[in-house]
Each structure stands twice: as structure tokens, then as C-alpha cells.
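User: I'm putting together notes for a lab meeting next week and I want to include a structural view of one of the chains we've been expressing. I don't have a solved structure, so I'd like a prediction I can at least talk through. The sequence is below, exactly as it appears in our construct file.
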Amino acid sequence: MIMRIFQVVTRPGKEEEFNRFFYETAIPLMKGTNGILQVLPGAPRPDTPREFSFVMVWDSLESLKAFVGDDYQSPHIDSSEAELVESRTIKHYDLVEV
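Assistant: Thanks for the context. Below is the predicted structure for the 98-residue chain, given as C-alpha cells.
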């Protein structure tokens, strides 16, 4: 299993607009995606008001690639959110089950 951590920093002043996108579009999309076993969305905290994140657990690298393509190590974003985002990062790990 692959753990994918996706983090976004919004442009200043775009927090509310991105917040709507996050709850209305991104979370439902990720929860309905084949191959994702678990989605853990992270909303901003008072000390980091422009930062959003997703931790996703994928059943396999093949499923992840089927969703984002072979360039799975690049942080892809939807075109409708591009103008709202200042920066984004993506990290992948092998999930350790304890």
C-alpha cells in the first residue's frame, strides 16, 4: 500500500474560496476514487491558515498511476484550483501496518 501526502498552500486571500473547493469538490472526488482505501483530509489550523492537506492510502502504485498518470510524483491539481494555490508538495511512502 502507498501512503500519499499532498499539501497545498493557498494564495493570500484565497483561503475561503479554496476551502469551498476542498469540501465541495476535492474531498468527495478523493473519497470516490477507485484504489483509495482511506482519505484523511486536513483543514487549516489558526497558526497555518493557508495550509490544507490530504493523506491518502492507495491499495497499489498501479491504482495511483491509473488516477494521476505515470508522473505520480508530481503534485497535480485541478485546473479550477490552480489560481487559488501558491504552492503544493507531494510525498509517497510505503504504508507500515502495525
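A couple of points you could mention at the meeting. The beta strands are 2-10, 36-42, 51-58, 85-94. DSSP finds two helices and four strands in the chain.

User: Perfect, that's what I needed.
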